[in-house]
From TrEMBL:
It holds the Pfam family DUF711. It comes from Saccharolobus solfataricus (strain ATCC 35092 / DSM 1617 / JCM 11322 / P2) (Sulfolobus solfataricus). This is DUF711 family protein. It comes from the Archaea.
């Protein structure tokens, strides 16, 4: 088990440098990623001025810097913001269907690497989660949370050990950082060889088979029960995640055509986001229709739903961090 991310939720922009220094001094091999999440962006704040607040040192620390409402006029600045600094992550809160066409145009305009740092959050409010890009410091006081990489422990039936150990680490970090520890986003998320797709397939036949839906629902139930048994405070999503470009098996299933866009949408009824880090052909009508479908899935589920789509043009795209991102079949 590793701490996939420790994310400090900073309520005051003037404290960005102070908390960056605090994070930089955490020399723990169990911590994979260090992050700072900022509040929902005030409507009167200049985005260019906000960028200037980022420290020029500690390039290993990343920032969920800009979190906008769907009707914000500053949406047109997002592409330039993402291009300006690879440490910056941005997301937009979507509560209606009024602006989906404009949001689809925005996504299609992004380069693959930029699109990997941009998301839409379909929900009624901003979300307190360590997971980027859909993270914001939607809280009244400075605090932090953690997310985990515990695929291997889950496979071995050691979810209790993983969650208990992580919670202990969180409480130790609370003393080191001297800020409030809020809890764990217990989402089961993959990273390349540590595949959640393998867990789903081991309980059904293959991606995609209709039994995948019950397998995913059972995994979510096990996560919930593990959190409850170990008295962990769950934050954020705390469900199974299926980011295609972050899971080697899911990537292969998309490449071979057995996992399609329709399958991903169907599975998103029972997991946190079926449309995550997936390459989709840059067609405006397709993107707008996907976002409409996602809106109504989220409306039905009544749970937060994050979307990251990577624009493609008929073939896979290459990114430095994720390698090859295949284009999913739109059927």
């Amino acid at each position: 088990m590793m701490i996939r991310a420790i994310t400090i939720f900073v309520t005051n922009y003037s404290k960005i440098s102070d908390y960056t220094e605090k994070l930089s001094k955490l020399n723990d091999n169990n911590i994979w990623s260090k992050r700072i999440s900022l509040p929902p962006t005030p409507i009167d704040l200049s985005l260019s001025k906000l960028i200037e607040l980022l420290p020029t040192t500690h390039s290993e620390i990343i920032f969920s810097l800009i979190n906008l409402q769907e009707k914000d006029k500053r949406l047109r600045e997002i592409k330039d913001i993402l291009k300006s600094d690879k440490r910056i992550y941005v997301h937009v809160l979507v509560k209606t269907t009024d602006n989906l066409k404009d949001l689809a145009k925005l996504i299609i305009s992004l380069e693959p690497e930029e699109a990997s740092r941009f998301a839409l959050l379909f929900n009624q409010d901003f979300l307190l989660t360590p997971y980027f890009p859909t993270s914001s410091a939607n809280t009244v006081y400075d605090s932090f949370g953690i997310s985990l990489l515990y695929v291997d422990e889950f496979k071995q039936g050691k979810i209790n050990e993983a969650l208990s150990k992580a919670d202990t680490i969180g409480r130790q970090l609370e003393k080191k950082l001297n800020i409030k520890y809020l809890g764990i986003d217990a989402s089961l998320s993959p990273w390349m060889e540590s595949s959640v797709g393998e867990i789903v397939e081991s309980r059904s036949k293959k991606m995609f088979d209709i039994s995948n839906l019950s397998a995913v629902a059972e995994i979510n139930r096990e996560i919930f029960e593990g959190v409850w048994r170990n008295r962990v405070n769950p934050i954020g999503f705390s469900e199974l995640m299926l980011p295609i470009a972050e899971d080697n098996l899911l990537r292969e299933r998309v490449k071979e055509g057995s996992l399609t866009l329709k399958d991903l949408l169907l599975m998103s009824y029972v997991c946190v986001a079926g449309i995550d880090m997936v390459g989709i052909y840059s067609d405006l009508v397709t993107y707008e229709n996907i976002l409409k479908s996602v809106y109504y899935i989220q409306y039905t589920k009544r749970k937060p739903y994050g979307v990251r789509m990577i624009p493609t043009n008929g073939s896979p795209v290459l990114t430095k961090m994720f390698g090859e991102i295949p284009e999913v079949k739109v059927v």
